Amino acid sequence: MKSIYFQTVNKLINKYNLNTLKEVFIFFVIIVGFHFFFRFWAYDLKYFPVKPLVFSLYDFLAKHVFLESSWFVSNVLNIEFTTIKQTMYFGKHGYIGINAGCSGLKQFLEFIVLMLLYPGPWKHKLWFIPAGVFIVHLTNLFRVIGLSVVLINWSDYWKFSHDNLFRPFFYVVMFLMWVIWVEYFYKKKKHSSKKSTSK
What we know:
The chain is mostly helical. The chain has one domain. It contains six helices and three strands. It has helices spanning 2-15, 19-44, 51-75, 105-117, 122-153, 158-198; strands at residues 82-84, 87-89, 95-97. A hairpin with a 2-residue loop joins β1 (82-84) and β2. α2 packs across α4, α4 (105-117) runs antiparallel to α5 and α5 (122-153) packs antiparallel against α6. The chain is globular, with a radius of gyration of 21 Å.
């Protein structure tokens, strides 16, 4: 019964050329599924069984995000601020503190899980995953730097920018990297394996 159902679904997908929608659906299932799994692991399981490791990673990443973004804001954008611990104070405009939620750890893990679960050649995953994690880190720096600029120039829009522009931007970048993976690595492997079986 199951095989008849899947055969029917596959026929409909092929008939109406819905393969792209199927791929996008799989992407969203993995991303949304990981989001809820991570929340459950963080809030209910308290990062069991690796809580000390997770907190040390949070501290390490948050420290580097603070150091790198504050250097850029100070030396490239020439914006003046003072620092106390991992917080940039911009005088009357307000402040930006870098904590565990700003570390990018969740997004790193999200991208890694996406790439591990999604099919494709492992020889390319071995370099694509670290490159993607680095791009996610750069995206996080862009987020903090962008929020600093918003705070200085349009402080009334800071919360809106934080919640509705820069946070979803992570997922736009991950989606674009996934599209590159599907188009240039996964689909190419599928086509080459089809050619070899048809010979």
